[in-house]
Amino acid sequence: xxxxLPFPLVAAALLAMWLLLNESVSPGAILLGGMxxxxxxxxxxALDPPKGRFRRLRVVLGLAVKVLAEIIxxxxxxxxxxxRPGERQRRSGFVLIPLDMRNPYGLAALACIVTATPGxxxxxxxxxxxxxxLHVLDLIDEAQWRQIIKDHYERxxxxxxx
Amino acid sequence: xxxxxxxxxxxxxxAALLLLLGAGLTLTGAxxxxxxxxxxxxxxxxxxxxxxxxxxxxxxxxxxxxxxxxRPVLHEVLIAVFMVVTTPVTMMLLTRAALYRDRRxxxxxxxxxxxxxxxxxxxx
Lengths: 162, 124
Prior knowledge:
The complex is a heterodimer. Chain A is mainly alpha-helical. Chain A contains 5 helices and 3 strands. Chain A has helices at residues 8-22, 27-47, 57-83, 104-116, 142-161, and strands at residues 93-98, 120-126, 131-136. Chain B has a domain at 53-108. Chain B has helices at 9-35, 39-42, 47-69, 76-104, 114-118. In chain B, helix 1 runs antiparallel to helix 3 (47-69) and helix 3 packs antiparallel against helix 4 (76-104). Chain B is elongated. The A-B interface holds A 17, 20-21, 23, 71-72, 75, 78-79, 81-83, 85, 92, 94, 96, 111-112, 114-124, 126, 128-129, 131, 133, 135, 137 and B 25, 28-29, 31-32, 35-36, 38, 40-41, 43-45, 47-48, 51-53, 55, 73-75, 77-78, 84-85, 87-88, 91-92, 95-96, 99, 110-111, 114-115.
């Protein structure tokens, strides 16, 4: 199994992408897409990507819903900040957040989530100290942001990827 | 779009609303790029366009073509996926370049480099 299908999830994702691009689920499209994704996975073996796993689909779905709600909420908040700048005193600043997660895929997912929610930007990650630097547009309480990142995003991501 | 006239009213209305919302958010982001004060604040503004802004436009496109062609048109999902995956790369590149320059210039407003906290930097 491992020999012929070294990265089953990558293969499935590539096949799904192929079918979406072709806009068809005809046997021909599935066959050609299957062959293409299999070939791509065999090439990926040569690149030797870092090991990772992906499990607990229920946690992934819960996280996706939470992130979607957060995207809508923070879009609204940042749009308000831009359109009514003088409403109240606003401070932006950096927050240094210690992370327990070491898995590169989990960190990449966290970077995508943080960037996808307006108002927060992932600035840098220090792998020796395992800390990330976050820039927050509307910074009220630094400890609160550490809590949000750790509880809302890091813990479920560690469950999924580690 | 000559076929647009064949679209039922509810779909046309919903697609137009989504388009306006997405375009409005993207415009707000562009305004923020002008109005916000520092570089690190300005980098937040365009994310309005790359998240909910593009999301609304893609939803409008999916709705429009799905109703018009009476079959699910879903390949816009791929645009959203690639947008989410590639935006952090650009953002990190921009902010880290700005941070590097600020640290070099000894700007106190930015946090020091992690390696400089414990030990002295080798290059001084």
